[in-house]
Structure formats: C-alpha cells, structure tokens
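Hi everyone, sorry if this is the wrong subforum. Our group has a chain we'd like a structural model of before ordering constructs, and none of us has done structure prediction before. Sequence below.
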Amino acid sequence: MESTSPIESAKELLTRCEQTDLLALLETLPAEKQVEVAERILKLNSVTPTGMEEYLKRARKLLADSAANVNPFDEYKPEVPTGVFLKPGQTEFDEMEELGMNELCRVGIVLIAGGLGERLGFSSIKISLPVTTVTKALDEDDEYCYLRYYAEYALAMKKRALARDESLDKDSFYVPFAIMVSDDTYDRTIGLLEAN
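Answer:
Right subforum, don't worry. Here is the predicted structure as tokens:
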C-alpha cells in the first residue's frame, strides 16, 4: 500500500478544516516549500490536542456563541474557594513546606518581562531595576537587579533540589527559567543577560 505524501495529507487536512485560503496558498508554493509547509501543518495537527479539525470546530462554536451573546459560564456560580492560611512557625506550615520542597525538581520559573519601567520613573526595562533603592547607596554591587535576583533564586532552587533528590543528575539538572519579552524589551533583555 502506498503511503500518502505529506503534501497530500496536508491538503486533505486543510480541506476537512475548511481552510481554503491556506490550501490555495500551499498550492502556489514551489515544490520544496510545499513539502516544508505541509510537514509543519501536519506537525501542528499532531501537537494540537484532539487535532486541528476538532480545535477549529470548538473555536467556531465559541465565536458563534460570543456573537450571539451566549455566556459559556452561565450554568456556573462563582464561589470563594476554601483554603488554608499558613503562618511561619506553625506545624502545618512546616508540613506544607516539606511537601513543597519535594516538588522543587519539577518547578520552572516564568518571568513576565514585557514592560518598561516608565510608570516607575525608570527609563529602561523593569527587570534591570535594582532590587532595593534604600540600601543601593550602601551596596558595592550596583548591578543587583531583579533579573539577577530571579536567576539566583533559580540557582538556589537547583541547589536545594539536588541536595534533596539523589536521583537527579548533578551535571544536567537545571531549573527551567523562561523570560517572556516584548518588542520593547527584547534587545535590552538580551543586553542585560550578556552584560551579566
């Protein structure tokens, strides 16, 4: 049995998804580019939960409901969740902290850094602000900015995780640290990282 080419598979998928504009665009590309784009389409379909076809059906329904003023949350009643108020020094705090420490090897950090410090009277990116301005004059290290603070926090988490879990590979384990930037902050964030 002959296997279908990526281009044919992508065309069938785009047809089922009613993506006629994208299908027409695909057909205008040179053969090599068609294969590349077709493979990307098929990859997107494979990583989209339930596939692109079902995703588009859900999206179209949500858009139609929105246009018709249908609230998908009408049947739900908001409630204030119950929780636990933990105070340092209490037994329950220590127990919860111990449980949390066991999860350090599964934690990652996402730093939202898309804004500038203009509202704070600062002309650069917020993550380059000093952690404290009160003691800045006393500090010899004027470069102790928020980005460094978060990076050191990630390194401290790594150290604690390695100390707690002997199964972790000391040479390859790290705490994932992602920085979300914007067009306004990208170049300056890269510059701050390279300088430090």
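For your construct planning: The CA atoms of residues 6 and 38 lie 6 Å apart. The chain has a mean pLDDT of 88.
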